[in-house]
Task: structure prediction
Amino acid sequence: MLRFSYGAASHVGLVRETNEDAGFAGPYLQVVADGVGGAAAGEVASATTTYVVSALAAACPEHDPGELLADAVRMAHDELRRGVEDDATRAGMATTLTAALIRRGTVTLVHVGDSRAYLLRDGALTRLSIDHTFVQSMVDAGRLTPEEAVRHPYRSVVVNSVNGDAAAGPVVQDLDLHLGDRLLLCSDGLTDFVPDDQVAAALAEPDPDDAAARLVATALATGGRDNVTCLVSDVQDGPEVKADGRLLGAMLDPGLVVDPAAVRKGRPS
Result:
């Protein structure tokens, strides 16, 4: 049975007062959500979305993984909308979402926003996700080169997010992963400041926890201008593991989740 052997680390950074990143790391599910900068209650959006994904995955073990992840995005949108109705100061709250779920020997990825997923295989680093940002749309249209995009002042403007206003457009895909592959899910507090060659070097650490810690330390060494969360997981085969998983960032405060009971009330049949 496929599973993740994982390590994870999250840090508020050296400038921000609040960690608006949220994460969940478990043997069959990895989740990173990053509250959109400049919006109200980003930590509520990221914690609620991460909770919905992790709770729905636990509650529906037989559900098709692609459908489950798409359902989770829709349910998170509904919860954020209700959260704004309950508290108008949360208006505009939004989050990214990147999550990988193992079911029946397949790893399925869902992606919204500009958190990222990477694959390290035989020392080579490959990005598995495409940023949902204004700058990436300009690159796709041929109006910017990737090198120009890295320095563009609007590189962090997200055009697709999980929020309480409009439904997100998630990208859901099955990944072609092999035993021994290493997966990285991370917020842009890493990728906005640390180049790919340094990411690959940190991921070469044998232990996933050491790799995650080194990635976060490398981001902090650049100035720590954003929250940073890194989940590092190795694809392995072995007997089923019963574990609750590790909570990170905003997920450590259960009071940030709009309604923990919502998954029980609204989960798909």
Q: What stands out?
A: Residues 154 and 171 are 22 Å apart (CA to CA). The two ends are 25 Å apart (CA to CA). The first helix runs from residue 42 to 59.
